[in-house]
Amino acid sequence: MSDIFIAGGWFMWPLLACSITIISISIERFWMLQERLVSPSGLDKQVLNLIDRDLLDDYQERAISDISSLGDLLITVHKYKELSRDLLESKLEEKSIEIKYKLERNLSMLGVVSTISPLLGLLGTVVGMITVFSTFQSSGAASPDLLASGISQALITTAFGLMIAVPGLILHRHFEQKVNKLMILLQSKTSSFIDNF
């Protein structure tokens, strides 16, 4: 494997950096987009219970807001409870945009890295092909075996670029769908909370 990596030339190093970036972002997003962290079950009932017993102070509001995205939305509802339903929903929409931005953290980077990986691989191949043909042009003799060997080495970067890009794009799409699903869940729980408030 190391021989193949070395044969790919210096373009393999940026491709390695791309693969490490994709793996790092994916692990972080798999952890942070867990439903239990974004929308803990029973949190809405706990907050309603605290409000009913008049035990929700500033410290607890901050703690609940920090614990999860759902907590942040529920505290926003409590904070603006005196407003009309339309104004309250407007405040919640602003907060939802902020939460969605947090949930989508690093996804644009994941998309960019997944998109540029095959382009870097292709660039490595083009540079490799130029090198192969310029070598044959200067030597004056073009052996089919040497030509095939040079082309196969040049194509290594394209293969690695595609091997990085395909899973990266799949993961990017998966996380986008996960964020949309979580936002729908948050909206549903918040609407239910407002109705019971």
Question: What can you see in these coordinates?
Answer:
This protein is mainly alpha-helical and 197 residues long. The chain has one domain (2-196). Helix content is 85%, strand content 0%. The protein contains nine helices and no strands. The protein has helices at residues 2-7, 12-32, 35-38, 43-52, 58-67, 69-79, 85-103, 107-139, 144-196. α2 packs parallel to α9 (144-196), α6 runs antiparallel to α7 (85-103) and α6 packs parallel to α9. It is rod-shaped. The N and C termini lie far apart (61 Å). 26% of the residues are buried. The mean pLDDT is 89.
Notable characteristics:
85% helix; mainly alpha; 197 residues; 9 helices
Summarize the biggest pleated sheet: none
- Residue-averaged pLDDT: 89
Roughly how many Å apart are the termini? 61 Å
Beta-strand residue percentage: under 5%
Gross geometry: rod-shaped
Record the SSE blueprint.
Elements: H1 2-7, H2 12-32, H3 35-38, H4 43-52, H5 58-67, H6 69-79, H7 85-103, H8 107-139, H9 144-196
Summarize the structure.
The chain is an all-alpha fold. It has one domain (2-196).
